[in-house]
Amino acid sequence: MAVSVPGYSPSFKRPPETVRLRRKRSRDHGAAVPASLPEPAPRRAALAAGLPLRPFPTAGGRGGAAATIARRNPFARLDNRPRVSDEASEEPLRGPQGASGPLLDSNEENNLLWEDASSHERTGTELSQSHRVSLSESDTWSSDGTELPVDWSIKTRLLFTSSQPFSWADHLKAQEEAQGLVQHCRATEVTLPQSIQDPKLSTALRCAFQQALVYWLHPAFSWLPLFPRIGADRKMAAKTSPWSADETLQHALMSDWSVSFTSLYNLLKTKLCPYFYVCSYQFTVLFRAAGLAGSSVITALISPTTRGLREAMRNEGIEFSLPLLEEIGHKKKVRDPSLESEEEQAVSDEDEEESFSWLEEIGVQDQIKKPDVISIKLRKEKHEVQMDHRPESVVLVKGLNTFKLLNFLINCKSLVATSGAQAGLPPTLLSPIAFRGASMQMLKARSSNVKTQALSGYRDKFSLDITGPVMPHALHSMSMLLRSSQRGSFSAGLYAHEPTAVFNVGLSLDKELDRKVAHEDLANCGLHPKTLEQLSQTPVLGKSSLRSVEMSDYILSWRS
């Protein structure tokens, strides 16, 4: 609305001189009060111009009948809209069982488009709740009964909350800690009751908790964090790296790493290791044994990748596929977008020759500079380079090609950084079971309790925070433990290492997997039978990973 009004600016870049409305107030309660106040000149001019203004307050005083009508703020926008009432919601929005969600900020709240009340009969409380769901997460919760979908991403943190205390997880006795480590090394199967009345006095629960915190790592340096590796240069910059300028030490580290890597692959091939991760400073590789993720052969996923890495793998004779780029329902053997068939390449070359033949016909072929071969190649491969470092660049290797991938990674010079904070440092190997040269590590667990505001006052809320490289088997083990200790009621926030979220992509299967036979073959891999059954499921999460988990009355709900 572009209406010029003297002394009135809609944008309030130059506020009018009069910004306060003076009211005549009686000095004593017995004085008479006029019925109304005269409207100021700028307001009368704005009303005459047709601008929408709030009703001018009458002189009811602070105790009059018109006291409920607040005068208009002269600095507010003309199109200012009322905010959503939050009176009825004293607690943050929960999921189906109480998962908290972040609130929108005031700017987002003011910019919400309000629709006609007759077509949307929702109260202010319902509106405020519907807008509090984070935009980065799904608005719907999925329920899968008593089991979660398999999630192959590595978590960096698990935050469990419950109305029941987690004090049982603190201050383990020396005997309980030792028993938990022995149970892990011997792959002891622990079965807990559905509900534990007093978890703090349950030795079996505390030993099983210690057993679930163990993982195996190579290389291991107590002063240097070795996970995550992608984007960790800033955290490692201030750490001492004696091998960065010592080639002899670098060769020794790589020699030990190659032995450990080969040991892990041999365990995987003989189905004594279910899976393991190779974490370099550029990409992460997930090796899975035959029988897991619905596949009857060994599989390896690499993410993220680049055109150079894929071309180097092709030159080594490694056959691979790009699962996210394959057409649905069709199985195609990968050949990068740069690897067209010979017929298509010949047609392309002929088109290029014809595109410049007209220059020769008019006799100016020497005067016009033709694009060189490299420029033409880069132009053709532009769409291929655009997916580098993205989830779509994930590479899948199957069967015997995984052994070629093993040799390729051992001999790949670009696997180790040559400069920076990670120079000369071999990739990190993560495994749920022991292997040659591995170091036993523990996830860090810390419990706490806070007071949260509720409708009836304050109540206790307990939390258990677990940090470190949480692998898929550890997430499932924790959910089974908390099912018993928290009496089937808890919620969890899961924080994934984003480059590994794409490991949940579905696979194109050559034949149906016989899960019963697969479970028998993997019976000695060191995992609980229920955990093994979950990891054998076909991934359904795609490029995403689990973000929130809820359990209520032993029924699980999750959001990705």
Automatic annotation (TrEMBL):
Sequence ranges of Polar residues compositional bias: 125-145
GO-annotated cellular components: nucleus; replisome
Record region (Disordered): 1-107, 119-146
Major localisation: nucleus
Transmembrane segments: none
Residue stretches of biased makeup (Low complexity): 34-53
Alphabetically ordered keywords of this record: Developmental protein, Nucleus
UniProt record, GO biological process: mitotic DNA replication checkpoint signaling; mitotic G2 DNA damage checkpoint signaling; nuclear DNA replication; replication fork processing
Localisation: Nucleus
Family: Belongs to the DONSON family.
Protein name: Downstream neighbor of SON
Organism of this sequence: Mus spicilegus (Mound-building mouse)
The organism's taxonomic lineage, starting at the top: Eukaryota, Metazoa, Chordata, Craniata, Vertebrata
